Structure formats: C-alpha cells, structure tokens
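dude i think i finally got it to work??
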Amino acid sequence: MGDAVAHLSRADDTDLLNVHAWHPFRVRFPPHHRPRSRLRTRALNRDGFCEKAPQFCRLALWKRLRARLGSGESKQGGSQAMSFAQPGHGPLEYQPVQYPGSQMMFRGPAQDLSGPYILCLGASETYGKFVSAPFPEQLGDRLDRPVVNMGAMNGGLDLILNDKAIAGAIEGADAVVLQITGAQNMTNRFYQVHPRRNDRFLKASSLLQTIYRDVDFTEFHFTRHMLSTLQVLSRDRFRIVVDELQQAWLARMRQLMGRIKVPVHLLWIADHTPEQEPRENALGSDPLFITADMLEEVAAEAASLSLAVTAEAERQTPTRGMFFALREEAAARVLPGPMVHARAAEELAQRLAG
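look at this
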C-alpha cells in the first residue's frame, strides 16, 4: 500500500485499519475482530487496546487484512474495490545482492566483476535509499559502461577499508568513485562502532569516559545520539572529540586512497556546500565534521572532486520523487532526492569521460 492510507469499501474492513498513529504499539480492535486466542486476548484491555503483547495484536490485524485483500472477494462473492486517499509512492525494491567475501547486502542488480567496470563506494547516499535511479545507475547509462554500486546503508570508512568484497572490487576496477562520508561513523580513540553498520555505537573508550565522567554511555546505540548529547553537555570537551574524529578521518582517507591504484574521483553529495558551517548548537548534516580544508587536503590526492548539492528550491519539497513508506518520511527528508542524484551523475560523467 506504500505510504497511502487504504480505504476499503466495506465498513468492517475500514474498522480493521483503525490504528492509532500517536502510539505505534496500540492497535484498536473492533469487538467483532478481536483475537479469540487466549494468549492474544490477555493482551487486550477493557477498551480493546493492545497493551502487553502488541506483536500478537499487530500480527492478527495484518494477517486478517492481508487475507481479506489477497482474496479480492467480498462475502457476496463480488470484487472488492479499494481506493486510496493521498496516493503516494510505495517502498522500492532494491534487489539486494551479496558479493563473495562480504556479509553486506548491496543494492542490486548484481554486476559482473570479471570484466572492466567503474566502482562506486559510499554510504546511504551512494546506495540510493528511497531513489529509484541512484547516481551509480545513471552514471552507467551516461557512460554506457558497467558501474558497480557498493554503497552501503549507514556505511563509513571502516566498512570500506575492511570489507573483503569491496577490497576485491577495488582491485578489478578501472576507476573508483568515492563518496565523502562523515567522520562520526568510524572507530577511533574515543569510541568503537559496529564493523558493518558504522552508525551503531558499541562502546566508549576509557579516554572518553574520563573526559565525560558525567555520562552513562550504555544508554547510547547510535553515534549521532551520543555525539548530540556530548555537544550539549560541554562545548569545550566536545571540541576535543571533534578534533580527534577529524584527524582520524584524514588518516583513514589517506590509507584508503593509498590502497587504490586506479584514479579516484571524490564526490561530495549533501544538502550543503563544504564551506557552510552548521548552525549554532546543531550537530550538522552529513558528511558530519568534514570541513572545506579537510576536503581540499584529500582532493589533492584524487583525480577529481565533484559536488552535488541540494538546491534551495529543492529544500522546499525534499522528498519529491522519492519512494518510501509512511514511517520512513523523516529518514527520506535528510537524504538526497532524484535531482541531486542526477546532478551527481552528470558531474561524474564529465570527469570520467575526460
């Protein structure tokens, strides 16, 4: 059903969708649709709300709804009509593919790594989350050459440096497009991140715990949440953390670019230019903590640098042309849309064709 709200022709089917959006785990069952199982009935209070076991209630709700829609028949045997209010795009089929040597699922379709190709490395932006034709696909169409998309959701330099499938793809590539990723999603002297989901915070080092003695780091699961909290507590102490992340990012970029023996084309794809500073008391948007001076330093060792920045007019409707489910709208708003991907493909095609 995508991000649309389905309205069914029958009154009892409409009741099936009586879900309270303000509470994701409270599902209202009309009396004639309440689960009959003793285990599931216990989860309902006097008003018919799921309180103790929401997973059972949601399962019963959607099984019943899916069975009703899948049959396409009403009780009278006629066809069942369905209309949509506020029609929108549904979630995309990303055709996930896993290359040998990696546990990561990259965006498909799978590409042949035995012949010549251009390799695109990066994070969610390169993966093309919520976009039907990400810039690697458009780049391949423009150049009429195979382009392998190994952008990873929430990936960072740690994943790119340590994934065996990416290492093998780098060896066989004719050129590499490397997205500029943020400095927050990688292991450093202050904290450790997940080796594949680099946005996942694992643990703080004793050094960071010494600097922030007033923080319980077991409460954090994501790097952005943790860093936002540290920023609010103390600007001076947070500056120490940022300096470490920036130095670690520069060292990691030099290490990666030193491994790649073919031309490296850097790509800055974001909602701001490298020169723009985040507003006061704000953490900023990706690529986080990367300054114009840092970008200039790594660009000196690359074949080219391309910038694809969200235009001012596009910020008014940030999700235009994107495909996402209703609950994914907030995530879609912070990722580049189709126009930015088209701009990135155009810029890169000019660099790679020259």
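The mean pLDDT is 82.
im so relieved honestly
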